[in-house]
Design a protein that fits this description.
The complex is a heterodimer of chains A (about 170) and B (about 100). Chain A is mainly α. Chain A has helices at about 5-25, 30-50, 55-80, 95-115, 130-135, 140-160. Chain A is built from six helices and no strands. In chain A, α1 packs antiparallel against α2 (about 30-50) and α2 packs antiparallel against α3. Chain A starts with a helix and ends in a 9-residue tail after the last helix. Chain B has about 100 residues and is mostly helical. Chain B has one domain: Helix Hairpins. Helices cover about 80% and strands about 0% of the residues of chain B. Chain B has helices at about 1-20, 25-50, 55-85. Chain B is elongated, with a radius of gyration of 17 Å. Chain B starts with a helix and ends in a 13-residue tail after the last helix. Classes of the chains: A mainly alpha (about 170), B mainly alpha (about 100). The interface between A and B is large, with 85 and 70 residues.
């Protein structure tokens, strides 16, 4: 089974735009520009979720990532008050080795993914009701443990970032 | 087909990995972690779509929650590091006991 032409057009668009946006995130000189490119990238990923019939995940992606995580990033940039980003260098000394590692990783995974097939019966329909039924029946215990993880992360974030009074020598 | 979505996923993951390895700024390294999380989420959602059950989408939900807590703790660590030493680059950290 092949893609429909509309799906192919959208897939090509998302492939090109996500690649360009992620390269822009890792190569822009100003950190706040990186944050804005990351904002557009997260919205595009939300649209990819919508193409995969996962509209609940699209909403969660926009609420949690764009509304929570990205706001946290912008807030951290504001608190740290980073100004001197315009003159110093962006990459570490051994950037070539990192690039080579990444390209090797891509080559290995591309050789696996290139011919992958999945003989599916029917793709899922977008159905938030059965998603919620599965989440609150079979996956109830992981869901509750996840709330504990979020609570511990919140407390840890507050304690680590707290401003301690300076010690007297 | 599923290999289009998987190709998109590994491309995003590779770019995030390269960015994590070669950038100096700690905040941009955390942003690359978010890119890698998103790539894995696309792979999960595409497997869920093509196999016809919702377990992959539930794993995406869990992964988003873990990514949110990871961003909170990571940014708190970077903030504490910048406050105590004034360093915000990964190759400027030279001693373990600040």
């Amino acid at each position: 089974m092949n893609n429909s032409p509309v799906e192919q057009v959208f897939l090509t668009y998302f492939y090109i735009s996500l690649t360009v946006l992620s390269i822009a995130v890792i190569s822009s000189r100003n950190i706040i520009h990186s944050a804005f490119f990351l904002l557009i990238l997260l919205l595009h990923v939300a649209a990819v979720f919508l193409m995969l019939n996962a509209e609940f995940l699209m909403v969660i992606q926009i609420i949690v990532y764009v509304g929570g995580v990205l706001a946290l990033f912008v807030f951290a940039i504001m608190v740290m008050n980073i100004k001197e980003e315009l003159r110093h260098r962006r990459f570490v000394k051994f950037a070539g080795a990192g690039l080579l590692t990444g390209l090797l990783f891509f080559a290995v995974f591309y050789s696996v993914v290139k011919n992958s097939r999945y003989d599916f019966v029917t793709p899922i329909t977008s159905d938030t009701v059965s998603f919620g039924r599965l989440l609150f029946s079979y996956y109830l215990l992981p869901f509750e443990i996840l709330s504990l993880v979020l609570l511990v992360a919140m407390v840890a974030g507050i304690i680590i970032a707290k401003k301690y009074p300076r010690e007297e020598k | 087909m599923i290999n289009d979505y998987l190709l998109l996923s590994i491309t995003l993951f590779t770019i995030g990995l390269i960015g994590f390895l070669i950038r100096r700024d700690l905040i941009v390294m955390l942003m690359c972690l978010e890119i890698m999380f998103n790539a894995v989420n696309i792979a999960f959602a595409s497997f869920s779509y093509y196999s016809g059950n919702y377990t992959g989408q539930i794993f995406v939900l869990f992964s988003i929650a873990v990514a949110a807590s990871e961003a909170a703790v990571g940014l708190a660590i970077v903030l504490a590091l910048v406050r105590s030493t004034g360093i915000n680059h990964s190759d400027g950290i030279k001693n373990l006991r600040g």
